[in-house]
Amino acid sequence: MQKIVSLKCPKCNNSISFYRFGKDKDGYQKYLCRNCNHQFAPDRPIVRKVQDYPRCPVCGKASFIHHDYEHYTNYRCCDKSCNHSFFVAKHTSVDSASMSNLFGKTDFKRMRYPVHLIITALSMFYLGKNSFRNIALIFQIAFNVKVSHTTISDWCKKFAPMFHNFSLQLIPTLNFDSDEWHTDETVVKINGVKHYIWFIIDSETRFILGYHLSPHRDSPQAFSLLESVKTLGKPGSIVSDRYSAYKVPVKSIFDNVKHIRVQSFKDDISNNLIESFHHQFKAWYKTKQGFNSFDSANNLISMIVFFFNFVRPHSSLNGLTPAQVAGLQLSAKEKRKYLLVA
């Protein structure tokens, strides 16, 4: 007995004239409407795709995609009376900050000179602002040790991964849940070409939470910087200048965190804290007279950040390091392990 199938075109509501039109990829019979040429498979089950969009943070109702960009998505509340717009970062599409891309050694094995001599050279360069030639001269006069200035230059760059690993081991024990995090960027030159280095610093501990070196000065670089430090703590607010590149990254990465955009140095809340650090950084940077390559610049900046956070005592912090103010407590043995004492 022939099966009678009642058909109706979903487009023009035709229920009389059809052609059989083969089968779809899943084997369901297709038909072609002779009036509007619409193809359909009436036996195919309808599967509705549920969109997993975040709820509106204001009213809790559903949302839809208003704009979709490379590094973030702009959602808008479906309730027209609310109409709230909010941003969600695409964490997988954000490039990693340059501070996580270092090259060099992770230990002192197979080194020709003793470790204490290498540590002395690093301290003189990153704390004393001496040039490589001055350090080589001091070693020859004071210690009767002849070391080439190029060897000292290699020391100051090649051990950046090792000190970065020390930093990664110590940071989880510190507390950065403070009122404000300050962020700003400054210019450095690499082979005569302008590059931008982005810093973010904790206001209460003076701890440099992260940095990012880039040839560009735009919003994706701010995304990389803020994405790299989002797990370190929960600030009450993030303070920056009025550069527009910070607006969307702060909104999308840090939920319920106030973004303070400083307009003048005379404001109650200013960005003087990180500007003061830039002054210290540039004083060290001038002894370099620019960098020779991106990789060496990235390593050198990583090292000076480590010495600033864990080694150098600050007069504004009563002679403590930023790490100690953030809660770092180490025994004498642990300090020797992480090379924080001679």
TrEMBL record:
GO terms for molecular function: DNA binding. Residues 168-330 form the Integrase catalytic domain. PROSITE patterns: INTEGRASE. InterPro entries: DDE_dom, InsA_N_dom_Znf, Integrase_cat-core, IS_Transposase, RNaseH-like_sf, RNaseH_sf, Transpos_IS6. Gene3D superfamilies: Ribonuclease H-like superfamily/Ribonuclease H. One of its GO terms (biological process) is DNA transposition. Keywords: DNA recombination, DNA-binding, Transposition. The keyword Chloroplast does not apply. Involved in the transposition of the insertion sequence. This is Transposase (Or an inactivated derivative). It comes from Lutispora thermophila DSM 19022.
